[in-house]
Automatic annotation (TrEMBL):
Name of this chain's protein: Metal-dependent hydrolase
Domain of life: Bacteria
GO molecular function, one term: hydrolase activity
Family: Belongs to the metallo-dependent hydrolases superfamily. TatD-type hydrolase family.
CDD domains (UniProt xref): TatD_DNAse
SUPFAM superfamilies, per database record: Metallo-dependent hydrolases (SSF51556)
Pfam families, per the entry: TatD_DNase
Transmembrane segments: none
Organism: Marinobacterium zhoushanense
Alphabetized UniProt keyword annotations: Hydrolase
Amino acid sequence: MLIDTHCHLDFPIFDSWRDQALRQACIASIGAIVVPGVTARHWVRVLDLTCGNSSAVRLYPALGLHPCFMSEHRPEHLDQLRTTVVEHRDRLVAIGEIGLDFQLEHYDARAQTELLQAQLLIAREAALPVLLHVRKAHDQVLKLLRQLRLPRAGIVHAFSGSEQQAREYAKLGFKLGFGGAISYPRATKLRRLAAELPLEWLVLETDAPDMPLSRWRDEPNQPLRVVEVAHIIAELRATTVEQVAQQTSATARKLLQLNHS
């Protein structure tokens, strides 16, 4: 069974074909999908989807305030997040999607950092792992993680850093999410990391409907494509898809305690 550790299946783009996407995922032996929240107004949508799902594919919720939606976040949302986490602690597998994005135009580094730190503290209080969105800010995120010493680590979603940064995350217990970006031949650094880093450090993801693979770049991404990600990693590492699936799924289950949720 494969696990998609990062898929925005709650997004409205899936409304007309969500059941179809889940059926295809099930047929492709995808056993679980983690659905992260990105804004406070969408947390109920994530919780409802992951609770009311009738598919054979298990859906697991995570809740967070994403750095790409800073204009939508309000100070009271942090209190709301803390309260919601307490209410749904037995169901949540992570706090996320949270992080820093210094690639955005006119980004406010201080505001993003304060928001991330507050959410990391909530994760620490709840003893939950985190799903991190990091662009052009890996050193800053690593500094915060070292300072706060979370009891449980998490996943650096859509990892885009250097080998040295990957090793620093690994020292803290973090795993690295690899998805559609490795399907592009020009992504030489990323493909090299997928080939050479210890397989135990990697987990699979789609980030659907975003981050489409090269063969389907004009279509919305979907959970089914995590199968292709597994095949690409197996090819890059000269190993079997079965080995990639077994190790990455075991890593995700242990890290996020999926069997206990």
